[in-house]
Every structure is written in C-alpha cells, then in structure tokens.
Amino acid sequence: MTGRHAAAFRALHAGPDPLLLPNAWDVASALALVAAGFPAVGTTSLGLAAAAGRPDATREVRDETVRLAHLLAALPVPVTVDLEDGFSDDPSAVADLVARLPVAGVNLEDSTGRRLVDPAVHAAKVAVGKRRCPDVFVNARVDTVWLGEQAGTEATVARAARYADSGADGVFVPGRLTEQQIAAVTSAVPVPVNVLATAEHTLPRLAELGVRRVSTGSLLFRAALDEAVTVARQLLAGRPARSPTAYGTVDARTREHHWAGRSLTGPGAAPVPGD
Amino acid sequence: MTGRHAAAFRALHAGPDPLLLPNAWDVASALALVAAGFPAVGTTSLGLAAAAGRPDATREVRDETVRLAHLLAALPVPVTVDLEDGFSDDPSAVADLVARLPVAGVNLEDSTGRRLVDPAVHAAKVAVGKRRCPDVFVNARVDTVWLGEQAGTEATVARAARYADSGADGVFVPGRLTEQQIAAVTSAVPVPVNVLATAEHTLPRLAELGVRRVSTGSLLFRAALDEAVTVARQLLAGRPARSPTAYGTVDARTREHHWAGRSLTGPGAAPVPGD
C-alpha cells in the first residue's frame, strides 16, 4: 500500500525552491490545504493527538494515525505521515507499520516521550523501514535541538549523518536553530534537510542555507485553534459574524473526497481501519 | 450518563445576556474554547463530519458523535451535542442514544439528508427523548429556513411551537432570518429561542429580539480552516511564522483533560467507545 504518489513527492524535494509542506490534522484541514494549491500534505502528531484528546509523542495515537493515513489516501497529492517514533522500539514493527500505510512518506523521530533514543536504534528503524518500503520517503527526525538536549551542533550533525548513512531519504531537525546550525547540517548530509517554519527564518533565507523542505509542524493547527477562539470572542463582543469559506463548499469537497476514497478502496480492497 | 452539568446549562439560557455558544469539532477546539472562558460548548456536525471525511447531515457520523461526546465528558463546563436528526426515524432509538451520552444538552434537527421531516415525527423524537432524559436540554431545530423550503414564517413558527408543546427545552432556527422572522418565533414560543451567529445581526440586536442562545454552528470550524490556509500561504510568500498559542500549552491542556477523563471514567466505568 505504501509509495502512493511517492515519485512525485521525492521530486518535490529537488525543485527550484524548498518544498513548503503544510501539516494537516484531519481530513478537513488536508482538503483545505489541497484546495489552496499546496502540492503535498504532511500530518502533525500534536494536532492529531490533541484533536483526539491525547498527549503527543507518547505512542498514544497509533490507531488514529493509521486511520488518518487511510482517510487521506484518496487525496490527489502526496501525503507524508508523522509516525512519532514509529510507535515501537522494534525496527521490524516500525517497518510493518510503514508497509501498511498508503503514503508517499513518513517521519520517524529519534525520541520517545521527550527522551532521545540511542541513535543506533533509530538508525535501525530507518534502515529496516527502507529495506521493506524502498519507495517511501523516510524522513529521519533528529530531536536534539527540539528537546533542548545535546543541543550542540556536533551531536545533531552526527545523528543526521548517521540516519542518512542508514538510508534515510531526508533528515528533519525541528526546533529553534541558528543559521550556523542549519548550514552545518545541510553541508554535512547528502540528503534533503527539513526544518520547521519559525519566526526566525523566512523561506527564502532557509533556501539560501540549503534547506529543501520546510514543515509547518503544528503551527497551522495552533493558529487554527486561536482563530476559532478569536472569532467566538468577536461575536461575544457584539461584532457581526465574518464570512469564511461557505458551509456548502466545505461539505461539497468532503463529499467529493469521500466518494474518491470509496472508489479507491472499492470492493476487495482493504477498508479504512475502524470502518 | 446524561444530564452532566445540566442545571448549569439550563441556567445559562436565563442570564442577563443571551448565551453565546461556541461550537467545537474535536477535543482540542473544545479545550481552546473552555480555556478562553466560554461557559459552555456545543458541537458542530459539519465540523465533526468534515474532520472525519464524511458528508454532514446524512447519519454518517453517529459513532464519531458518540465518541466525541464521551471525550468531552471531563470538560468543566456543560456540553451540548449536535445529533443531526438523532440518526434514526425511530423516537425510541433517538431516546436510547440521548440516554447514552454524558451531556447537558442535545440538538435534534427536523430534516434528514436536506429534506424536512414530518413535524409529527420530529415532535415524537422530542417527546420520547424528554421522557427518557428529563434533565437533558433538548433543543429542537427547525430547518425550514436553513433548507430554503417552506421559508414562510408561518410554517417555521408552527413547527417551533409544536416542538415546544412536545417538551423541547428550546427551539433552534438556523439560517438567514430577518428581524421579523426572529421576532415572530421568539414571541410565539414560550421556550428559549436559538439562532445562528450571522453577518446580519449582532449579539446585542439578537438579545433585543428575544433570542436566548446564539450558536456559532460551523462558523468557527470554517474560520479555523481558512486561517490554517492563510498562515501556510504567508509562509510560502516568504513571511516569517507567527507565534500562536505554544505547542507546550496545547499539549499540557490536552494532558490535563486526558487525565481528568481517565479519573472520570475510572475503573469499572464505561470506557470511551472505540478505546
């Protein structure tokens, strides 16, 4: 099932500009981003977990993640899914999970419950996952800076290089990085480097630093929550309602996607888990 | 299980100002609205359905609705859940569903798949639901204006009055109403009248017209989706990322709610469906 739109996704990392990858948390947010013209969609584990009322990065939302990956399979663009740490310490179990997903790519992070894991264990997940699913874009996340541990650039570069050596198609270093840190990673590893969109660096500057993918992480999800609160507060203050995208537009694109998904899974194909 | 925070919810309809009820679509949006100080939270069936990739108002998301109601049970404020048409033509089945939900209130609409149902059938759902769950605030929705059918005020008032006679605690007339239509309903029925927040009427004006509850319906959900797209487009245009509510804040309030829910359901209590 893996590798859906995989070649197209890989090519997006080799374009003239870095890939700006917006991260969705449910079907509606993914459809809105596709309707807006974004050429690929990722998922955010914080968004997915918080929507379901669960903590992030604690292996609590494996089933929800699998379910969302299937629900997004009918999208006309590549999808890459945030798998936290693969929801397992066992590289074979991680590879089994990746093999079940109808996706172009996955993110695998080298921390569990906010603790860095041994880079050898993470490198094994990457290597076994790639052997099992060679066409899937495996993005190996380096959480040194994100967790504020071993934030020295040397450890970050060492982990990034090790994952690339193990077959990772890309490395992702989230967190607040300095320009020097970003340049150190992009110059040290031969695969596309992914960072988060932050207030510190614009997309053009990240491109100059050699970054090939810029993810929004949970930014869009958190901005969306804030906007819901802002609009509700405006109403409470006596302001008239604004007019966002119409009810009929949202429902119509959901219906279209729903039917595309049905024809995709069709008779004899694997149903969405939980259906 | 029904009637959680029911007395408090009922009282919110008798305050000095109309209740502005914001509608959430998942746990995260509900928690954001509670954190912002709103005294009660509703749900939006469009939001819930679109998030799950299903069409609205077609009985497609009964299980997701039940699940969300349970996931919101640990909120410190009353919750009222949009049950579409009760997901059944059978008043007893609707009452059984209401009785399963740990909520302060429910909305039941008198249309199925965008067609108005016989008001006698809807009145029976209201009456049987109220007999079974007397403390739950049953808000009977009149879809004449919403669907653009029988939009004459007379039919709307007749349905509203019939549902109030059948025991509805409130009536809800969504759609674009004129001031005359609103006043006709509020003067004709003895129970709180609920309308949607629209661009046409501010909250103070709706209060003058006798409205006691103003719902956001799917407005916040649609505004949130638009905001996600806006932020992504700004990044693509080379603007630095803004700083919405922090990752840690969202994750921390999710964790707190998650633990509150565990202690609520506790050993021996009914688990969240699907867990």
Word description of this protein:
The structure is a homodimer of 275-residue chains. Chain A is an alpha/beta fold. Chain A has a single domain, classed as TIM Barrel. Chain A is 44% helix and 13% strand. Chain A has helices at residues 6-11, 27-35, 45-51, 62-71, 91-100, 119-132, 153-165, 179-188, 203-208, 219-236, 247-265; strands at 19-21, 23-24, 41-43, 79-82, 105-109, 111-112, 115-116, 137-141, 170-172, 193-196, 213-215. In chain A, strands 1-11-10-9-8-5-4-3-2 form a 9-stranded parallel beta sheet. In chain A, helix 7 (153-165) packs parallel to helix 8. Chain A is globular, with a radius of gyration of 19 Å. The model of chain A is unreliable at 266-270 (pLDDT under 50). The interface between A and B is large, with 70 and 70 residues.
Question: Any chance you could write out the topology, listing elements then pairs?
Answer:
Two copies of one chain form a homodimer.
Chain A: H1 6-11, E1 19-21, E2 23-24, H2 27-35, E3 41-43, H3 45-51, H4 62-71, E4 79-82, H5 91-100, E5 105-109, E6 111-112, E7 115-116, H6 119-132, E8 137-141, H7 153-165, E9 170-172, H8 179-188, E10 193-196, H9 203-208, E11 213-215, H10 219-236, H11 247-265
Parallel strand pairs in A: 1-11, 2-3, 3-4, 4-5, 5-8, 8-9, 9-10, 10-11
Antiparallel strand pairs in A: 6-7
